[in-house]
Amino acid sequence: MPASITSCKTLPVDVVIMAAGKGTRMKSRLPKVLHRLAGRPLLAHVLKASAQLGARGATLVVGHGAGEVEAFCKADSRNHPPLQFVHQEPQLGTGHAVQQAAPLLPDDGITLILNGDVPLVEPATLKHLVEQCGGKQIALLTVDTGEDAGAYGRIIRAEPGREDSPVHAIVEAKDATLAQRAITEWYSGVMAAPTKLLKQYLSLLRDDNAQKEFYLTDVVKHAVADGTPVVAWAIEDEMEVAGVNSPIQLAELERGVQRRAAERLMEAGVRLLDPARFDLRGTLECGQDVEIDVGCIFEGAVTLGAGVKIGAHCVIANARIEEGAVIHPFTHIDGGRDGVTVGAGALVGPYARLRPGAELGPEVHIGNFVEVKNSKLAAGAKANHLAYLGDATVGERVNYGAGSITANYDGAHKHRTVIEADVHVGSNCVLVAPVTLGAGATIGGGSTITKNVPSGALSVARGRQMNLENWQRPKK
Ligand code: UD1
Ligand code: CA
User: Fold this and answer.
1) In whole angstroms, what is the distance from residue 21 CA to residue 266 CA?
2) Which end of the chain is more exposed for a tag (fewer CB within 10 A), N or C?
């Protein structure tokens, strides 16, 4: 990669993203570009790369599933450059797709053409390609692994295999001669071209080929005939330009992305017990000496403080887990919009569930089958077994017994439960909100508490036990 990837500031870049195709081989109702890779639609990856490149604008060519694609883009608009849509109906090929976008492209810039189903292209690569174009020539992104190029378009150079040799044409596999098919350098689908010239060459396209389509790739031969140089830059990382056409390819690419993410984390010192069993569908920030066991999924924005340990098979979304906390196996944490915080040194799980607005202070213990939602637990509070805390404020050192729940919902409204410091809630209690348990109060097991409990009191609210001695059971 050249050092000066920022020096392409000379000319504005307008991106065209082709996303009108049907994606037949996905065999799905969902438009192909909305299928997810690392938790985000394929198209979102392409739009993000366009934004990182600093594109002036992007034009999306839509056709199949246009309504859904546009709806997604509108909801996601803070992550991409100013976007406009053009409809391509019917779809007569990649050249025809770019023809639809052409009237919207300002003449003074460089057009960068991307495929909506090629998600992993790096902004630095795109910048370099734009630089090579420089507003004077057409620059193609190509791949040469030395192996058979399959169904891809072949790069025809004056001297095959020499990167400095000018490109004469791209020939689609279906139109290639045997000799051309043997060429191993193929076109990735990514091209940068001076917009004014590109429009001129687009207007010359014909569909006199094997597929009766207007090929974008034919602009190359028109450029050459017009004396405009065409250069090709062959990269080695095939994954960067891999397209998604089928569920198998999507899954392969997913593994590739995940391997990269895992390697980045491990290079930063994170210990993943098995990088092949790790999934990141968002961002993960880790302090020093973090350990993550197998089968964990991280979604949204997750932060793990120094020394945090995550047990096997946890799903953790939108959460901040502070220094030294331990999340035991099979725990589900989803902060949603409100987020979840787990304080320093806290212990959570196995089989715990933390929902939006759960805020655990330092050294809090949340055990198996305990659910916490929109509740703040102060330092040292414990709910170790089979319990529910919803819309609650829990003081320091509270002990919340097995099977106890806050009845926070009366069918219409949610109410708060306040449990002050050092309260001991016995097992199997129902705390009917709104209710306050004063500091140091004790609640007898099996109580249904509907009234406030004063500080320091013992409250028992259940039927008294009655023993009938020598009881004779009925007999048949
Ligand atoms: C294209 C290139 C080929 C290259 C390959 C790389 C052409 C003629 N060929 O072939 O040289 O090696 O990409 O992946 O360009 N699309 C539209 N409207 C259309 C047709 C396609 O929007 O009418 C979109 C598709 O949704 C897709 C992209 O353009 O996102 C590429 O189309 P596709 O049919 O996959 O092109 P390939 O045949 O793979
Ligand atoms: Ca394709």
Assistant:
1) 38
2) C
Cβ–ligand 1 contact at 243 (below 6 Å): yes
* CATH 3.90.550.10 is held by the domain 13-241: yes
> Catalytic site residues?
385
Cα–Cα distance list, 183 to 150, 162, 217, 232 (Å): 10, 12, 16, 14
> What is the structure's pLDDT at 9?
57
> Which pTM does this prediction carry?
0.90
The CATH number given to 247-459 is 2.160.10.10
- The pLDDT value recorded for residue 160 is 79
For residue 283, which amino acid is it? T
DSSP string across 233-274: EEES-GGGG----SHHHHHHHHHHHHHHHHHHHHHTT-EES-
pLDDT at site 7 = 44
Residue nearest to atom 25 of ligand 1 (CA): 21
Q: Which atom of ligand 1 is nearest to the CA of 153?
A: 11
Measured in Å, residue 136 CA sits from the centre of ligand 2 at 28
Q: Which atom of ligand 1 is nearest to the CA of 245?
A: 35
Distance from the alpha carbon of residue 91 to the mean position of ligand 1, in angstroms: 11
Judge contact between 183 and 156, C-beta under 8 A.
Answer: yes
Low-confidence ranges of the chain (pLDDT < 70): 1-9
Structure-token pair, residue 22: 């049907």
Residue 116 CA: which ligand 1 atom is closest?
30
